[in-house]
Amino acid sequence: GARAALRVDLNDNWTADASVIYQNLETDGTWDHDPAGVGERSIQRYFPDFSDDEFTQGNITLEGEIGDNQLVYSGTFMDRDVQYQADYSEYGDYAYGDGAYWVPYYVCDYSATGPDIATQSATDCTSLEEYYQEDNQYERTTHELRLQSIGDGALQYTVGLYSTEITHDYNQEWIQPGIAPSQAVPGQAPNTFFRTRQSRTDEQTAVFTEVTYDLTDSVSLTGGLRWFQNDSKLSGVVGWGPNLFVDADTSVDASYDDDDFIYKANLTWRVDDDRMVYVTVSEGYRPGGLNRDPGLADVGAAEYTPDVLTNYEFGWKLMLGGGRVRFNGAIYQSDWEDVQFTIYDFQLSACCGAVYNLADAEMTGLEADITALVSDQLTLSAALSFNDGETSSDYVLPAGRGTPVPKGTELPNVPEWKGNVSARYEFEWSTFDAYWQAAWMFTGESFNEIRPDQRSAQDSYNILNLRAGISKDDWGVDAFVNNATDETANIYVAPRPYEPSITTNRPLSYGLKYWKRF
């Protein structure tokens, strides 16, 4: 990788900044393992897993003063190419129903459920091994223009415009060596039995403003409003073999748009120089969009709408013990409407995982962190979060298909408890500045899926990292031991029955790092 930055003072009031970064990341292997099938930190693969991720990103910022206002323009662009390949043989080996296999149904010249599955010649379908490869091109352009007050008055404001355009062109191929030629995707690389070749364009425009008024020297009231409009387009093809490729140019050609307002209100009380409390009511959202399977139009799920979260929060920021202790925290209640979830359900989409709007959910939470300067050399820190999230109404997937999600279902990937504790000790050793540091992190149990009869538990885990180093003038050496207890974490358990792998963390690792300032 490489990066460069340039700053130019145009005059006493105006400056221009430009930067660009380039990175090319190549990986081999996978962070998944299959402890139930082949053992902890082991996985069985028949084809190599690798990726090549190359991107260039640039930014230009122009800012200056106009009277008691500051005008800021920021523009960014990104161009990114990602090639990816992964073994997919677990899919071919998965048996459903009465022992029938999926892959023979898709890629062989005989039925996966008929009596001839055991008698057909091996030349019709040589194996169940397969792999998946993907070619992605991303482009993103963003513009923001913002005017904000910088005077000393009781009234402060910000107004702005925002726009972004994102394009994603992708070709995804599932390849079965030895596929029956009659079942291959026409016009593709040999042995391709399933393909998604599509182009997505997402455009967003927004107008926003925020105004703060000092009611007194210590109490401020803030209000904010944002109007947004999203436009999404999707075109291309998706499907098996020749079956869904009657017209390769018009298999899906859809558009979707939405617009709405979200708001923010805040009341802040600066009790004194060391204490501040606040209350906030605010909204956030995720844009709606289009699912890649055009067949979902038959059940009213070709598109999904924005989901909106309304958050009610009380928080505090305190400096205690003469400034030696910092204590921050917040208590909040969040109401989540039209929740978006990605679900793989073959009763709904025979080809793809898709995004659906579930009904509603709610979350109650607490987060806090504390840092204490115990002595001039020793600093202790700790943080804790608690989240109780569940659906607040019953929901059944479109057209009554799939399994229901009843009211009170715990939200997936939301550990009830998370926390960390760290200690850092700084001292002088001979003529060097030195330190040692220990950090422990805990993540509680969670579920991997929203549907109660399809979900699996993701166990809690603890990670301990150790670090020590010396420095002098403009250089230093750090030694580290990460995951010192060699914990195997269940970061994500794949919810698909044909893919039992678990994404895990890096095992115990250690090393030295030399650094120098120029």
Structure description:
The structure is a single chain. 2% of the residues lie in helices and 60% in strands. With 518 residues, it is mainly β. The protein has a 19-stranded antiparallel beta sheet, with no helix packed on it. The chain has a 3-stranded antiparallel beta sheet with strand order 3-29-28, with no helix packed on it. It is built from 2 helices and 30 strands.
Short description, anyone?
With 518 residues, the chain is mainly beta. The chain has helices spanning 89-93, 102-107; strands spanning 2-9, 14-28, 32-33, 50-66, 69-87, 95-96, 100-101, 131-149, 155-175, 192-214, 219-240, 252-272, 275-286, 289-290, 303-304, 307-320, 325-337, 340-343, 354-357, 360-373, 378-391, 417-429, 432-443, 446-447, 457-458, 461-472, 475-482, 492-493, 502-503, 509-516. The protein has two helices and 30 strands.
Rg over CA atoms, rounded to whole Å, is 28 Å
- Tell me the distance between the termini: 18 Å
- Give the fraction of residues assigned to helices: under 10%
- The count of β-strands is 30
Total DSSP helices:
2
Please outline the major beta sheet: 19 strands, antiparallel
Low-confidence stretches: 110-123, 245-250
Write the layout of secondary structure elements.
Blueprint: E1 2-9, E2 14-28, E3 32-33, E4 50-66, E5 69-87, H1 89-93, E6 95-96, E7 100-101, H2 102-107, E8 131-149, E9 155-175, E10 192-214, E11 219-240, E12 252-272, E13 275-286, E14 289-290, E15 303-304, E16 307-320, E17 325-337, E18 340-343, E19 354-357, E20 360-373, E21 378-391, E22 417-429, E23 432-443, E24 446-447, E25 457-458, E26 461-472, E27 475-482, E28 492-493, E29 502-503, E30 509-516
Antiparallel strand pairs: 1-2, 2-4, 3-29, 4-5, 5-8, 6-7, 8-9, 9-10, 10-11, 11-12, 12-13, 13-16, 14-15, 16-17, 17-20, 18-19, 20-21, 21-22, 22-23, 23-26, 24-25, 26-27, 27-30, 28-29
